[in-house]
Design brief:
Chain lengths: 364, 289
């Protein structure tokens, strides 16, 4: 296991009486790509500003690159930030912007020039941009210049504050791919703040989901997606089915009672439970839309849902069905692989099937 | 970068600017033209005589006295502009950044001082700086001899008055410019490794330049035309152009002379501003704040 580059222990942050961060402990491994995810106001940006040195700690301790950060100003930290609105200097050329950290470090002009040219190449920018000003570049190009400026001095830690939130979807996708590529290429640790869990799952090695100033879950993307800590994390991405159920211990596993599911042997294994449900109780059964399938007449499954197609959306790679269960309750969302022949039309009576091991139970 | 603005071809728009055009012509261009015409006339027994000759201009350029006063006016205005700029930048920076909690109070106090009649403020300075005034009284209390500060009725006193009365213009324009700077740019500079001082020179100062320049232009133009400070605080020992022009019109009732001196002063001001503007344009040719 590589040594941690960031070690945060019991971090607290108060703004007057308002508690922005409560007891945040987290460590980032050298070279890791960590995403901080959560709804606005969850404290993810506050945490990033604390790492950057723009905000003081109200409590706890922070070590970056082996040094205690107490009292160390932003200018002396081994971190570089990519700002949400990029914060390129409008009065400096692209070359001056990118070379600024090196100029401050009093490096010789020839070295700065070489480093700037290297960054231009790495970011796939044109050399003719060097003498241009930021406002003469497109949004995506400005983004790359901002990345280049923060990477030029090869900092051990790069902090990204939702730098792609202002871009259109297509540009975002291509820059996300480039960011991932860049991370692999340079080996710097990235801490990336975003409110988009999908983006985080694409990019990050580990995701830290935050809510109301606390860490709700910290884990690999697959863990966050398939084994969410609670209903908040489960519902944070896409359309997820959360079916209310009652769990009771029986033998090695738990029996579940769920009105929405027809099931001959309603049992869950211990590995299908979020923490706190080992003893049973009220729970929500999380079923991801892509886990459901459409059953042909006579076909059977471990669990089934009967209903009527209320709506469907063709989304290219997938077709999303919203099915009103005949037993009542919330609409069930099902994603099927896209085909040119629609398997069901709106108004059709359908039977959905799923495998019990695809269910994961979380606390309501 | 250049905007493709075709609005000047718009007939309706042209028509709507007509009233402004008329006002400008009536109250600015025509009087200026009349002043220029006046400088080619003469006077006899305190009366204007329509001579249409260059006697006055010969007089204006031939007399060492006028050259000296014009030169003094130009130097005083330039020094005043330099002093107000040097003073205003740190004051505005402190107001916006370090004392931002009290910036409203400071602004309010400054507006009060700014709107108080200049005559009152200037005489206030006389009382303060007088040999037996407030400042010397306080200094005497601290053990200094009587009349330790003896600057009143000198060009130094004139400069103190000018800087005091004109400083708010530069502070306001500079503070406005600084307040508009995106906080993230300052943070980005810290983040890149710059100290506060370095950030001030690398980011804050260049981005506040439009405001600083605007303030400097305002102060320079106003400083060329001061007459109160040289008279009240300078004691009339080293008059400046505006006082000379006033005397020509009022005391000597020589309108053509006053008109010629006015033209000279306007031309001096215009030339200096054009030179400064040209310099600024060269430096800012491509960058846009």
């Amino acid at each position: 296991m590589p040594s941690p580059i960031i070690e945060a222990t019991g971090i607290q942050k108060y703004y007057g009486d308002y508690r922005a961060l409560t007891d945040i402990s987290l460590s980032v491994a050298n070279g890791e790509f960590l995403a901080l995810v959560g709804p606005s106001g969850c404290g993810k940006t506050s945490l990033l500003k604390i790492l950057a040195g723009f905000e003081d700690l109200s409590g706890g301790s922070l070590t970056i690159d082996g040094r205690d950060m107490a009292g160390v100003p932003a200018s002396a930290r081994p971190t570089r930030m990519v700002f949400q609105k990029l914060a390129l200097f409008p009065h400096k050329t692209v070359a001056e912007n990118i070379g600024f950290p090196l100029k401050l470090a009093k490096r010789p002009a020839a070295e700065i020039d070489a480093a700037v040219r290297h960054m231009i190449e790495l970011m796939r920018l044109k050399e003719s941009y060097l003498t241009r000003f930021p406002h003469e570049l497109s949004g995506g190009e400005q983004q790359r210049v901002a990345l280049a400026r923060s990477m030029v001095s090869q900092p051990p830690v790069l902090l990204l504050d939702e730098p792609m939130s202002a871009l259109d979807a297509k540009l975002k996708k291509s820059l996300q791919a480039e960011l991932k590529h860049l991370h692999r290429h340079v080996g710097t640790s990235f801490v990336h703040v975003t409110h988009d869990l999908e983006e985080a799952m694409m990019l990050a090695d580990r995701i830290c989901v935050m809510r109301a100033g606390q860490i709700v879950q910290l884990g690999a993307p697959a863990e966050i997606y398939y084994r969410p800590a609670d209903a908040f994390v489960a519902g944070f991405i896409g359309d997820t089915n959360l079916l209310p159920a009652r769990l009771t211990p029986e033998g090695a596993g738990l029996r579940f009672d769920c009105d929405a599911l027809d099931c001959a042997a309603p049992m869950l294994a211990p590995g299908q439970l979020a923490p706190g449900l080992e003893q049973g109780g009220e729970a929500l059964l999380m079923i991801r839309p892509e886990m459901l399938r459409l059953l042909a007449p006579g076909e059977t499954a471990e669990a089934t849902i009967e209903g009527e197609v209320a709506e469907f959306f063709i989304r290219g790679a997938s077709i999303q069905y919203r099915v009103a269960p005949s037993g009542g309750g919330a609409e069930i969302v099902m994603d099927l692989p896209g085909t040119s022949v629609l398997p069901a039309q709106a108004g059709d009576a359908v039977r959905l099937g799923l495998t019990l091991s695809d269910i994961f139970a979380v606390r309501p | 970068m250049a905007m493709q603005d075709k609005s000047w071809r718009d007939g309706a728009l042209q028509l709507s600017t007509l009233p402004l055009l008329v006002i400008f012509a009536a109250f600015f261009v025509i009087p200026l033209g009349m002043t220029a015409l006046l400088s080619f006339q003469g006077t006899q027994y305190y009366r204007l005589v329509w001579t249409w000759d260059l006697d006055i201009w010969r007089d204006v350029f031939g007399q060492w006295h006028y050259w000296r006063i014009m030169w003094r006016t130009l130097v005083m205005a330039l020094v005043c502009t330099a002093l107000t700029t040097v003073l205003a930048v740190p004051i505005a920076y402190a107001m916006i950044n370090r004392l931002s909690k009290w910036s409203h109070h400071i602004t309010l106090l400054m507006v009060f001082a700014f709107l108080t009649d200049a005559v009152l403020k200037t005489f206030g300075w006389v009382l303060f700086l007088d040999r037996s005034g407030v400042l010397n009284g306080m200094l005497a209390g601290l053990g200094f001899g009587p009349g330790a500060v003896d600057v009143l009725f000198s060009p130094t006193a004139t400069m103190i008055g000018m800087v005091y009365n004109l400083l708010p213009y530069t502070i306001f324009t500079t503070a406005l410019s600084m307040a508009r700077i995106d906080r993230d740019l300052v943070l980005a500079s810290y983040d890149a490794g710059a100290t506060r001082l370095r950030t001030f020179f690398e980011v804050t100062l260049p981005l506040a330049r439009p405001g600083i320049l605007a303030g400097a232009v305002l102060v320079f133009v106003l400083a060329l035309g001061v007459f109160l400070e040289p008279k009240v605080m300078g004691g009339g020992t080293s008059p400046m152009a505006a006082e000379l022009i006033r005397q020509s019109f009022e005391t000597r009732v020589n309108w053509p002379l006053g008109a010629a001196l006015t033209i000279v002063l306007i031309v001096i001001g215009a030339l200096v501003l054009a030179a400064a503007g040209g310099l600024a344009a060269i430096r800012m040719r491509r960058s846009k704040a």
